[in-house]
Design brief:
Elements lengths: L2 H6 L2 E6 L4 E6 L2 E5 L8 E7 L5 E8 L7 H12 L9 E6 L8 E9 L1 H15 L4 E4 L5 H5 L8 E7 L4 E7 L2 E8 L3 H12 L5 H10 L7 H29 L6 E6 L7 H9 L3 E3 L15 H10 L24 H18 L1 H73 L3 H14 L3 E9 L5 E9 L2 H14 L4 E11 L4 E10 L1
Parallel strand pairs: 1-4, 4-8, 9-12, 12-13
Antiparallel strand pairs: 1-2, 2-3, 5-7, 6-7, 9-10, 10-11, 14-15, 15-17, 16-17
Length: 512
């Protein structure tokens, strides 16, 4: 909480609207509460997960005055994101300081559908009556740099798995760069784990396994399927990292921080570092809060940290529409009551003034009625103009869709012809190429299988053996880094053969 807030509010309450849990902070203590309620003395904060907003990078001319920046960004956002003009989206922005180019300024723009706010936060407002701040969750990470929990200017990735969402975020030189929602929330992890396991366990039991045992669980079936699950997750994250490097011209990431809403997962950091080849650390910081031994979600702690910062230390990107009521004298109802009381007193003391005010109101009503008639005519004219332009737009869109369909058909035909004539893989050359890599890493090739399915997916399955698991792991890392643009690799299990005294595995290479 900033100094001004500390003088006004005695507590901070943080809200996770997706789980419906609340944490109250007083001084440096944070505790969960099951019965939050309205209070004028508390500062209420919440967040939007990455599914709740759209973010994009918009560039505008440096010559645009500060007062006109919002309008310029709004117009470009509606145009570039093809937003529905009939919906008045909530739009906020922060400047991309290190992204500036000659003649242009760049801004990270966040867009929220008004229905999202009304639907997600209505249960919260029933209890608290208002929310002072609703912040996009990636912007909370700025607090880590401001408070010195991370003190370098390197390029960092952040991955955090929550029950209803998971997000990937990039900061470079201590500034926000990019955020994306991942397809593996804790609930989605649980569903996929049950599929791999072949039996159903409840979500709480799954989260308990992650929190207590992590990837080092003593149950071999659980461990095998957890490793396979996180292999799929990190493959997805690796694709996102590859895209982000190219899109934002980042040569390398110096460190990646990974955390979950259930706390630190044992073995996850080591597995991530081996798979991604990036130095990995837990997203599990000590913020100096007394939690009485409870595991408190990092998002709740970041909200309390954010609420204690000065406004110029944090990203001000507030989407709340649930403002606290103003003082009585500034409310419309309060003004009405005060004016009514004054008018009544004046009427009792000065009947002449009462009749004068009555005449004035009749005159004002007549003026407003005439003004309304003029405004109504102008409104009707503009509506007709808008409807005409929408009709022209729809006709043009229909023609464009027809052209796109015809173009797509021709494109598909040419692609198929090209694949048949040029891109059909030469199996002997592919096998020779892979054999060279196997020999380089002292891995022997025992069996080879090749298959094509109905979707024309071409797959090589190599049966490998080696005296060391490190050889196989190093081979997989080499292939993933050097051939990712041509193949998708999958290595599910490394087993040990007591008779042959060697490690066995099957590596699948799917041609892209």
């Amino acid at each position: 909480m900033s100094k001004s807030k500390q003088q006004t509010y005695s507590t901070i309450v943080s809200v996770n609207p997706y789980r419906g849990d609340y944490y109250v902070g007083t001084f440096n203590t944070i505790s969960k509460t099951s019965s939050p309620s309205f209070s004028k003395e508390q500062y209420a904060l919440s967040f939007l997960n990455t599914k709740g907003f759209i973010s994009t990078l918009i560039g505008i001319s440096k010559n645009i005055p500060e007062d006109d920046i919002y309008d310029a960004l709004e117009n470009k956002v509606y145009e570039e994101l093809a937003l529905d003009m009939a919906i008045e989206y909530h739009i906020k922005y922060i400047e991309a300081i290190h992204r500036g180019a000659e003649g242009d300024r760049f801004f990270h723009v966040f867009v929220v559908d008004p229905l999202t706010l009304e639907q997600e936060f209505s249960p919260v407002i029933e209890k608290l009556k208002y929310l002072d701040q609703i912040v996009p969750v990636p912007l909370l990470l700025k607090s880590l740099y401001v408070k010195g929990h991370i003190d370098s200017n390197d390029a960092h990735c952040f991955v955090y798995f929550q029950e209803n969402d998971a997000f990937f975020c990039i900061y470079n030189e201590q500034e926000f760069i990019y955020a994306k929602s991942l397809k593996f929330s804790l609930k989605q992890m649980h569903e996929r784990f049950c599929e791999l396991l072949g039996e159903q366990i409840d979500l709480i039991a799954f989260e308990t396994i992650l929190a207590n045992d992590g990837l080092n669980t003593s149950n071999p079936e659980y461990q095998k399927n957890l490793i396979k699950l996180f292999g799929e997750i990190f493959l997805h994250i690796s694709d996102v990292i590859t895209y982000a490097k190219r899109a934002y011209d980042i040569k390398k990431f110096d460190e990646i921080f990974i955390g979950t809403g259930v706390g630190k997962v044992i073995g996850l950091d080591e597995y991530a570092q081996t798979y991604l080849g990036i130095k990995t650390a837990p997203l599990d910081f000590d913020y100096g809060f007394n939690t009485n031994g409870q595991i408190v979600d990092q998002i709740h702690q970041l909200l309390h940290l954010y609420g204690r910062l000065e406004s110029d230390e944090r990203y001000e990107c507030n989407f709340t529409i649930f403002h606290r009521p103003p003082p009585f004298a500034k409310r419309d109802s309060g003004k009405l009551i005060l004016v009514t009381a004054a008018a009544l007193a004046a009427a009792l003391l000065y009947p002449g003034v009462y009749w004068g005010l009555s005449y004035f109101e009749e005159f004002r009503h007549a003026v407003l009625t005439k003004e309304y008639e003029q405004v109504h005519i102008e409104k009707t004219t503009r509506e007709n103009t808008v409807n005409l332009k929408l009709a022209n737009k729809n006709a043009a869109q229909k023609l464009l869709d027809e052209q796109k369909t015809a173009y797509k058909q021709k494109q598909d035909t040419l692609i198929k012809v090209h694949e048949k004539k040029v891109d059909y893989p030469m199996k002997a050359k592919i096998l020779a190429d892979f054999t060279q890599s196997f020999n380089q890493y002292r891995v022997q090739l025992k069996t080879i299988k090749y298959s094509e399915d109905l979707n024309n997916t071409k797959t090589f399955a190599f049966g490998l053996t080696s005296s060391s698991t490190q050889n196989i792991t190093a081979l997989l890392k080499h292939l993933t880094e050097s051939k990712r643009d041509r193949y998708t690799f999958n290595l599910e299990l490394i087993s040990y053969d007591d008779e042959q005294k060697s490690y066995l595995s099957e590596l699948k290479a799917v041609i892209k």
